[in-house]
Fold each of these.
Amino acid sequence: MLCPVKILGIVVVLGVSVQGVVHQVSTVSQLKNALSSVNPGDIIRLAAGTYKAGLNSDRNGTATNPIIMEGPADAILTNTNYAFHLLGSYWILRGFTAANGKKGIVVDYGGHNILENLTVRDLEEEGIHFRFFSSDNIVRNCKVYNTGTKRPGYGEGIYIGQDRGKWVNNQPDKCDRIQIINNTIGPNCAGEGIDIKEGTCCGLIKGNYFDGHGLSDVNSDDSWVDVKGDSYIVEDNRGYWTLEDGFQVRDHMPVDSGIVSGCNNVFRRNHCDMYASGYCIYFANKGKCASNTVEDSNTLTNGGQMTNL
């Protein structure tokens, strides 16, 4: 068993000079202690093994000194509820696995976090969820699969924002400028691969690969990506096999609200390998919002139609 080791040093991460303590951990108690005391510039380094507990942190890094938690893929965070619950900002989560819990990684009230090279799998509900005004976060180079094993209607791979029915004081849950880049999502994500909720805006969905096998269609979960937010760029993605459509855009606001969602989104250079009769890019309420764009660079194979726009 590794002993907890604290090493003061300087590390260069993503061009940022990080000075702080390295917490070498191999037990749940060591990890909990590190999560409760970590400071800007610190690194939590996980040894291989299973960490089963209610793991969370509300500590914050800074733009120049983020907090890093990293480990190999066989360092597995698990729990009956959330595998890891982050309530802080300026973190880098790297390399480890979140698995075998109710939800994978949930970020609440957290901004400027990076989730990279993670494996998120075998979860009762969603894999990665940004909620409660968590903006400017990045998910890249991750693998997300086998989600919604017990509640398929809540088994999204990656979930941005919240349904308007869960907004606090009827105010949009502004999880804005989220970037989802170069991830492999599916198979067996029972909900959509990515679900982008109304009230969010200005994100980037780029370079991802979707395998739609295992979509459940419980809560209309019949596409790789569902866009209810505004001003998203969706580009360079590839999808294989779907129940109905590849990408769906829809308004999800009440008719009497005077607000329309699912506007000003741009789709370009995406490829849909459908094996279904629907659309590569489908607009459920195209009459409500004429400002979406589907460029000619999108391509389609094996059934379906390109778009109804």
Note: The first helix runs from residue 28 to 37.
Amino acid sequence: MASLINNLNDAILTIDEVGVILSANDTVEKIFQYKPAELINKNISMLMPEPYRTMHHKYLSAYLQTGKAKIIGIGRELPAIRRNETQFPMELSLSEVTRNGKRIFIGIIRDISERKDAATQIYQLAYYDQITQLPNRQLFEKELLKLISKSNITDSSMYISMIDIDRFSQINLTFSKAAGDYVLNMISQRINAILPEHIKLYRNTADTFFLLNHSPILKLPLQNPVSFEQLQLKIQQTLADKLAINEQYYSLTVSIASVLVDSVHLSSPKLISLLEHVISDIKNKGGNKAQIVGENELISFNRKAEIESEMKRGIKHQEFYIQLQPQFNAQQQIVASEVLLRWRSQKFGQVGPDEFIPIAENSALILQLGQFVIKQACKTIAEQKALGNTCRLSVNISTKQLAQTNFCADLINVVNEWQIEPCQLMLEITETTLISDIELIKQRMYELSNDGFLFSIDDFGTGYSSLSYLKELPINELKIDRYFINEITSSVENVPIVNAVIQIAQALNVTTVAEGIETKQQFDYLITKGCNLIQGYYLSKPLDMDDWLVLQDPVVLTGST
């Protein structure tokens, strides 16, 4: 029996009524680093860290007087201390027996260090970002929910913020992902260095962070956001200080959205959605701005939520349709057309694509709408083929579509279903999409290019892409963004940019398309400079299908650039 007890993984000790150790098995040496003989006649408190060591006699005396204890007969986790003064967590099971009229306590002790370490590692993986070591979004959501509940009880409120690093993808693209990770660490260190103790920084995803005020402020008749605005300004200033990346100096700008939780009365998920909405709006206007969410932003957010809800209903009730905008060559002949998605909502009437498409792209709805556009384009090409006409149509492809593992296979299936040639589809990808995940996009582009599909880079000149990547990608067309076209005949600044894009396209041996052409002067200038195709209201607005069909001519449609 003694051999069995000594070979257990648990330490077993017996102590008397005043805490003196009467016996100990051999396992105590493995756990506490004391030989059993060294513990006999010593007080059990020597194995306890403070304050348990000092309080032990008091607890034991109280139990002997009252018969009440929180530990007898109940397993409990407690800290213990080894001979070398290192603390460790133990699991203690304590029972009481009577021997010769005296109380004897039997303690079974298990070292649970490995179990606790494993639990800590699991917690770290679940709730902390592995790049910056900051708490992650999961922990942010958990603590936000807890603080919202607390503020409701204590009649207090708090600010939360989202910080988005402007054009962060450019760093990964220009340098490397390792450089991007380094920058994320530097960002977190710089922000943490200026934060008050009660405000905590969290890593969200990619290039965004959260701030959460862990000391809710008392509600006042009028909340004064000045101090939080000052904090936002300090964050912008500290990140604007130049950062060395691969011996190059780089200055960061950020977009920040903050909201006083009590002012909007939203659930935790909707608060995050509100901040994401405001950040998206800031970035669409150029970024590098800090904003406290007010009534206008809340109205805009609610409108977005309504639009998204109505879009789901609109898809189900077939409220979406396409228009086509022709693209003309120098002889003003139609060579191709772009397929444009439109929505006539039963509730809102005609909703502009500038409003509903960004909302769709921030949700899964873009997948359904994108598939609808592709099918409509293939159907139109097939119908023209049946009439003896050859046409090429451009369709916009979103990041979410390209990220789908089955996107390429699904696209090929639709093309085969309508029995058209892949080269009759020009897939338009924005520069922003291109740099969002360059390796994935590159892989998809080559896969589809090998099957015969064509690619156009839309809004070229606005997304900060590297020219080296353009050389590596299977690109057939560059579209000059309308932003550079608007004032081409009056703005000295835009002229060299437009000229450069045309020259880049010529160097890459790809077609150039200028969109947003509204005047003869713009048309003449671009054609003179060598732009291949023109798209815009000067020659044709986007057309409903019936009007577009009127313009189709077999002779014209076989024309080339």
Note: The chain has a mean pLDDT of 88.
